[in-house]
Amino acid sequence: MKKLMLFFWLFCLSGCVVIPDGVGAVKGFDVNRYMGVWYEIARLDHSFERGLINVSTTYSLNADGGVKVINRGFDPARRIWKEIEGKAYFVEGSDTGRLKVSFFGPFYSGYNIIELDKKNYSYVLICGNDRSYLWILARQPVLDEEVKTSLVQKARELGFNTDALIYVEHSGNYRN
User: Fold this and answer.
1) Does an H or E element contain 157, and which?
2) Structural domains of the chain, ranges and CATH numbers in brackets
3) Per-residue pLDDT tens for 39-79?
4) Running DSSP on this structure, what letter comes out for residue 166?
5) Which of 25, 94, 113, 156 could link 98 by a cystine bridge, Cβ 3.0 to 4.6 Å?
6) Is residue 146 predicted with pLDDT exceeding 70?
Protein backbone atom coordinates (compact mmCIF):
# COMPACT_ATOMS: atom_id res chain seq x y z
CA MET A 1 0.00 0.00 0.00
CA LYS A 2 2.84 2.41 0.85
CA LYS A 3 4.41 1.83 -2.57
CA LEU A 4 1.09 2.56 -4.25
CA MET A 5 0.70 5.82 -2.30
CA LEU A 6 4.29 6.81 -3.12
CA PHE A 7 3.65 6.11 -6.82
CA PHE A 8 0.44 8.16 -6.69
CA TRP A 9 2.21 11.17 -5.14
CA LEU A 10 5.15 10.93 -7.55
CA PHE A 11 2.72 10.76 -10.45
CA CYS A 12 0.79 13.72 -9.11
CA LEU A 13 3.93 15.78 -8.52
CA SER A 14 5.28 15.03 -11.97
CA GLY A 15 2.06 15.96 -13.75
CA CYS A 16 0.40 18.59 -11.59
CA VAL A 17 1.07 21.86 -13.35
CA VAL A 18 -1.29 24.67 -12.49
CA ILE A 19 -1.67 28.41 -12.61
CA PRO A 20 -2.74 30.33 -9.48
CA ASP A 21 -6.45 31.13 -9.13
CA GLY A 22 -7.34 34.44 -10.72
CA VAL A 23 -4.18 34.56 -12.84
CA GLY A 24 -4.28 34.09 -16.62
CA ALA A 25 -1.59 33.20 -19.13
CA VAL A 26 -1.03 35.38 -22.17
CA LYS A 27 -2.63 34.41 -25.47
CA GLY A 28 -1.10 35.05 -28.87
CA PHE A 29 2.28 33.77 -27.68
CA ASP A 30 5.00 33.17 -30.31
CA VAL A 31 7.59 30.69 -29.05
CA ASN A 32 10.07 31.54 -31.83
CA ARG A 33 10.18 35.20 -30.76
CA TYR A 34 10.66 34.11 -27.15
CA MET A 35 13.85 32.15 -27.84
CA GLY A 36 17.22 33.60 -26.83
CA VAL A 37 18.66 35.21 -23.73
CA TRP A 38 16.57 36.86 -21.01
CA TYR A 39 18.00 38.63 -17.95
CA GLU A 40 16.41 38.25 -14.56
CA ILE A 41 15.36 41.68 -13.30
CA ALA A 42 13.51 40.64 -10.15
CA ARG A 43 12.39 37.46 -8.39
CA LEU A 44 10.84 36.14 -5.26
CA ASP A 45 13.45 34.37 -3.14
CA HIS A 46 14.03 30.62 -3.42
CA SER A 47 16.91 28.45 -2.31
CA PHE A 48 17.89 27.47 -5.85
CA GLU A 49 18.73 31.10 -6.76
CA ARG A 50 19.56 32.54 -3.36
CA GLY A 51 22.47 34.98 -3.47
CA LEU A 52 22.98 34.77 -7.23
CA ILE A 53 23.68 37.86 -9.34
CA ASN A 54 23.92 38.30 -13.12
CA VAL A 55 21.18 35.72 -13.57
CA SER A 56 20.04 34.91 -17.10
CA THR A 57 18.00 32.27 -18.85
CA THR A 58 18.57 31.09 -22.39
CA TYR A 59 15.77 29.38 -24.30
CA SER A 60 16.15 27.33 -27.48
CA LEU A 61 13.93 24.90 -29.33
CA ASN A 62 14.43 21.16 -28.92
CA ALA A 63 13.91 18.70 -31.76
CA ASP A 64 10.95 17.17 -29.87
CA GLY A 65 9.00 20.44 -29.95
CA GLY A 66 9.93 21.36 -26.40
CA VAL A 67 12.11 24.19 -25.15
CA LYS A 68 15.62 23.82 -23.76
CA VAL A 69 16.10 26.06 -20.71
CA ILE A 70 19.50 27.04 -19.33
CA ASN A 71 19.50 29.07 -16.12
CA ARG A 72 22.80 30.68 -15.18
CA GLY A 73 23.92 32.94 -12.36
CA PHE A 74 27.02 34.01 -10.50
CA ASP A 75 27.54 33.21 -6.81
CA PRO A 76 29.76 36.08 -5.57
CA ALA A 77 30.32 34.45 -2.16
CA ARG A 78 31.86 31.35 -3.74
CA ARG A 79 33.08 33.18 -6.88
CA ILE A 80 31.62 30.57 -9.22
CA TRP A 81 29.03 30.40 -11.98
CA LYS A 82 26.09 28.09 -11.32
CA GLU A 83 24.17 26.64 -14.24
CA ILE A 84 21.33 24.18 -14.65
CA GLU A 85 19.65 22.84 -17.76
CA GLY A 86 15.97 22.00 -18.00
CA LYS A 87 13.21 21.38 -20.47
CA ALA A 88 9.77 22.87 -20.96
CA TYR A 89 6.65 21.82 -22.85
CA PHE A 90 3.39 23.58 -23.61
CA VAL A 91 0.47 22.76 -21.32
CA GLU A 92 -2.13 24.21 -23.67
CA GLY A 93 -1.61 25.20 -27.32
CA SER A 94 1.70 26.74 -28.34
CA ASP A 95 -0.03 30.13 -28.69
CA THR A 96 -0.73 30.26 -24.92
CA GLY A 97 2.07 31.18 -22.49
CA ARG A 98 1.56 28.16 -20.23
CA LEU A 99 4.35 25.64 -20.04
CA LYS A 100 5.55 22.97 -17.67
CA VAL A 101 9.25 23.07 -16.86
CA SER A 102 11.51 20.46 -15.33
CA PHE A 103 15.05 20.64 -14.04
CA PHE A 104 14.83 17.39 -12.08
CA GLY A 105 13.78 14.37 -14.10
CA PRO A 106 10.07 13.65 -14.18
CA PHE A 107 9.09 16.51 -11.86
CA TYR A 108 7.44 19.48 -13.58
CA SER A 109 6.34 22.86 -12.33
CA GLY A 110 4.23 25.57 -13.88
CA TYR A 111 5.86 28.25 -16.03
CA ASN A 112 3.09 30.74 -16.63
CA ILE A 113 3.69 33.87 -18.70
CA ILE A 114 1.22 36.36 -17.26
CA GLU A 115 2.44 39.55 -18.96
CA LEU A 116 4.48 39.97 -22.13
CA ASP A 117 5.60 42.80 -24.38
CA LYS A 118 3.96 41.29 -27.46
CA LYS A 119 5.27 44.01 -29.75
CA ASN A 120 9.00 43.63 -29.06
CA TYR A 121 9.25 40.62 -26.72
CA SER A 122 11.46 42.79 -24.51
CA TYR A 123 10.00 41.98 -21.05
CA VAL A 124 7.93 39.30 -19.39
CA LEU A 125 6.27 38.54 -16.06
CA ILE A 126 6.23 34.85 -15.08
CA CYS A 127 4.73 32.91 -12.19
CA GLY A 128 4.85 29.31 -11.10
CA ASN A 129 2.20 26.98 -9.70
CA ASP A 130 1.42 29.35 -6.86
CA ARG A 131 2.06 32.92 -5.73
CA SER A 132 5.42 32.12 -4.13
CA TYR A 133 7.10 31.97 -7.55
CA LEU A 134 7.45 35.17 -9.56
CA TRP A 135 10.03 36.53 -12.00
CA ILE A 136 10.47 39.64 -14.12
CA LEU A 137 12.75 39.03 -17.12
CA ALA A 138 13.97 41.36 -19.85
CA ARG A 139 16.11 41.16 -22.97
CA GLN A 140 18.57 43.63 -21.44
CA PRO A 141 20.08 43.55 -17.91
CA VAL A 142 18.29 46.84 -17.11
CA LEU A 143 14.57 47.45 -17.54
CA ASP A 144 12.93 50.84 -17.93
CA GLU A 145 11.67 51.98 -14.50
CA GLU A 146 8.18 52.75 -15.80
CA VAL A 147 7.83 49.24 -17.28
CA LYS A 148 9.24 47.64 -14.12
CA THR A 149 6.81 49.60 -11.95
CA SER A 150 3.92 48.55 -14.17
CA LEU A 151 4.88 44.86 -13.94
CA VAL A 152 5.28 45.04 -10.17
CA GLN A 153 1.88 46.75 -9.89
CA LYS A 154 0.23 44.04 -11.99
CA ALA A 155 1.81 41.33 -9.83
CA ARG A 156 0.63 43.11 -6.67
CA GLU A 157 -2.91 43.35 -8.03
CA LEU A 158 -2.81 39.59 -8.73
CA GLY A 159 -1.93 38.91 -5.09
CA PHE A 160 1.84 38.38 -5.25
CA ASN A 161 3.99 39.66 -2.36
CA THR A 162 5.87 42.26 -4.37
CA ASP A 163 7.38 43.77 -1.20
CA ALA A 164 9.54 40.63 -1.07
CA LEU A 165 10.93 40.98 -4.60
CA ILE A 166 14.69 40.76 -4.95
CA TYR A 167 16.09 43.04 -7.64
CA VAL A 168 18.94 41.23 -9.34
CA GLU A 169 22.34 42.87 -9.73
CA HIS A 170 23.90 42.76 -13.20
CA SER A 171 27.36 44.22 -12.87
CA GLY A 172 31.06 43.69 -12.42
CA ASN A 173 33.41 41.41 -14.24
CA TYR A 174 30.97 38.56 -13.86
CA ARG A 175 28.49 39.45 -16.58
CA ASN A 176 27.21 36.81 -18.94
Assistant:
1) helix 145-157
2) 2-174 (2.40.128.20)
3) 999 999 999 899 999 999 999 999 998 999 999 999 999 99
4) E
5) 25
6) yes
